[in-house]
């Protein structure tokens, strides 16, 4: 963009000047999502980039690196952070504790600093709970339908059995009556 080009030109012409652009200062994420804390810095010399997370649980240093040299990632974030040359970081598998303020500090070798802030809101996925309830309801409905069919079959079988038993009793009673009549 024109703004980025102008900032880069300004930084190249004046030593000790650092610029930082934060294109998305607010990020909304859901639990277990990967998020990109996107920034872009420019300066004439070698810069040191540092990211910190501030929340109600305290302040945690996430990562610090010098462009092209080393990367020092905090043990808490060791397997969850990816760094990029433009100063951005990616957080993998965010949780509720990842909500809060993310501060980036870019320090040029001449001692000039610039700061940026990104606010991250993390929400729990509520529809999973509703999904569980819906599946449970469907399961219970299926079980009750099967039980109703089973009761209907049992009832039909009982009626058939009673009909056969009544028919046999009627036939045997008729035979007895005929036998009694013959004996007389």
From TrEMBL:
<dbReference type="InterPro" id="IPR003599">
    <property type="entry name" value="Ig_sub"/>
</dbReference>
<keyword id="KW-0812">Transmembrane</keyword>
<dbReference type="GO" id="GO:0030424">
    <property type="term" value="C:axon"/>
</dbReference>
<protein>
    <submittedName>
        <fullName>VSTM5 protein</fullName>
    </submittedName>
</protein>
<feature type="transmembrane region" description="Helical">
    <location>
        <begin position="130"/>
        <end position="154"/>
    </location>
</feature>
<dbReference type="GO" id="GO:0005886">
    <property type="term" value="C:plasma membrane"/>
</dbReference>
<dbReference type="InterPro" id="IPR013783">
    <property type="entry name" value="Ig-like_fold"/>
</dbReference>
<feature type="signal peptide">
    <location>
        <begin position="1"/>
        <end position="19"/>
    </location>
</feature>
<keyword id="KW-0472">Membrane</keyword>
<keyword id="KW-0325">Glycoprotein</keyword>
<dbReference type="InterPro" id="IPR015631">
    <property type="entry name" value="CD2/SLAM_rcpt"/>
</dbReference>
<feature type="domain" description="Immunoglobulin">
    <location>
        <begin position="24"/>
        <end position="123"/>
    </location>
</feature>
<dbReference type="GO" id="GO:0046847">
    <property type="term" value="P:filopodium assembly"/>
</dbReference>
<dbReference type="GO" id="GO:0030425">
    <property type="term" value="C:dendrite"/>
</dbReference>
<keyword id="KW-0732">Signal</keyword>
<dbReference type="InterPro" id="IPR036179">
    <property type="entry name" value="Ig-like_dom_sf"/>
</dbReference>
<keyword id="KW-1133">Transmembrane helix</keyword>
<dbReference type="GO" id="GO:1904891">
    <property type="term" value="P:positive regulation of excitatory synapse assembly"/>
</dbReference>
């Amino acid at each position: 963009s024109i703004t980025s080009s102008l900032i880069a030109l300004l930084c190249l012409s004046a030593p000790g000047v650092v610029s930082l652009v934060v294109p998305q200062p607010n990020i909304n994420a859901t639990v277990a999502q990967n998020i990109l804390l996107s920034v872009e810095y420019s300066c004439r010399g070698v810069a040191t980039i540092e990211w910190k997370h501030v929340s109600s649980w305290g302040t945690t240093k996430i990562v610090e690196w010098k462009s092209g040299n080393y990367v020092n990632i905090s043990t808490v974030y060791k397997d969850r952070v990816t760094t990029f040359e433009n100063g951005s970081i990616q957080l993998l598998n965010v949780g509720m504790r990842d909500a809060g303020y993310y501060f980036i500090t870019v320090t040029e070798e001449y001692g000039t600093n610039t700061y940026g802030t990104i606010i991250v809101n993390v929400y729990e996925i509520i529809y999973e709970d509703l999904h569980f309830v819906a599946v449970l309801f469907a399961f219970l409905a299926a079980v009750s339908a099967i039980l109703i069919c089973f009761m209907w079959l049992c009832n039909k079988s009982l009626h058939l059995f009673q009909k056969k038993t009544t028919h046999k009793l009627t036939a045997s009673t008729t035979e007895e009556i005929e036998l009694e009549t013959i004996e007389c």
